[in-house]
UniProtKB/TrEMBL annotation:
This is Pyridoxal phosphate homeostasis protein. The modification N6-(pyridoxal phosphate)lysine is found at K56. The lineage of its organism: Bacteria, Bacillati, Actinomycetota, Actinomycetes, Streptosporangiales. Belongs to the pyridoxal phosphate-binding protein YggS/PROSC family. InterPro entries: Ala_racemase_N (IPR001608), PLP-binding_barrel (IPR029066), PyrdxlP_homeostasis (IPR011078).
């Protein structure tokens, strides 16, 4: 059977893995250039900005490629997908970031593999995650997720979660009170359709407030593929990048 027949018969395409690897390598190089340029424009050091590869909807084989290319931080937004992927990649020594909305009944699972939860947005979740982290004998870093969408104030709560900026300190207090959790900073997603730099400036103000009370909570997780320059300009320390690294997830996902 020729190679072409083998592919036609649905067998593995032997070139696929290396093509994927080259694609991700090129994307990563381009992304690092973007981050370097954004840092230069903001007068910041690229060493102060961590790239988190958001691997949701992509297979564990992509996580493995990213690890080989020197990426140390990966992000996921659904526990059902993240838990098996983290287990499959346990040998890679990566830091796992949970960036999606988190139900308290998933706290037990997430506490097993997550190094950082970016979506801590209510005291009850801090209590649940803290209890599970202690049971697992682990310390889980937490970012207080802030809802930056002004529409939420009018009661039209978006699907993305996050605490009202006025409640940020109360949520931070709840995290800080939990043994097993380490308050690490704040996180936000820029509202759709708005000016991301304006939104990230508001996040920066909340970050300063939290840092005032908790000086070690220095992380600011902001910026995705489309708006990372604005995030770097406004003090982001962690960028959560999916499509710019791994290409489109297709419609209806994410
Ligand atoms: C998917 C996701 C990202 C990555 O978004 P891209 O536009 O693919 O870079 C970042 N943050 C969160 C919370 C996400 O769910």
């Amino acid at each position: 059977m020729s190679a072409r027949d083998a592919v036609g018969a649905g067998e593995a395409d032997p070139g696929r893995g290396s093509r994927r690897r080259e694609r991700i390598r090129a994307n990563l190089a381009e992304l690092r250039e973007r981050v370097d340029a954004a840092c230069a424009a903001a007068g910041r050091s690229p060493d102060d900005v961590t790239i988190i590869a958001v691997t949701k909807t992509f297979p564990a084989s992509d996580v493995r490629i990213l690890a080989e290319l020197g990426v140390a931080d990966v992000g996921e937004n659904r526990d059902q997908e993240a838990a098996p992927k983290a287990a499959e990649c346990a040998d890679l020594g990566l830091s796992w970031h949970f960036v999606g909305q988190l139900q308290t009944n998933k706290a037990r699972s997430v506490a097993r593999y997550a190094h950082m939860v970016h979506s801590l947005d209510r005291p009850r979740l801090a209590a649940a995650l803290g209890a599970r982290a202690r049971t697992e004998g682990r310390e889980v870093g937490c970012l207080v997720q802030i809802d930056l969408d002004p529409a939420s104030e009018a009661g039209a709560l978006g699907p993305r979660g996050g605490a009202d900026p006025r409640d940020a300190l109360a949520v931070a207090d709840a995290v800080a009170a939990e043994e097993g959790l380490a308050l690490a900073g704040v996180m936000a997603v820029a509202p759709r359709g708005g000016d991301p730099e304006e939104a990230f400036a508001r996040l920066n103000a909340v970050a300063a407030e939290v840092r005032d009370r908790y000086p070690r909570a220095k992380a600011v997780s902001a910026g995705m593929s489309a708006d990372l320059e604005a995030a770097v300009a406004r003090g982001a320390t962690h960028l959560r990048v999916g499509t710019a690294l791994l290409d489109d997830r297709g419609p209806n996902v994410g």
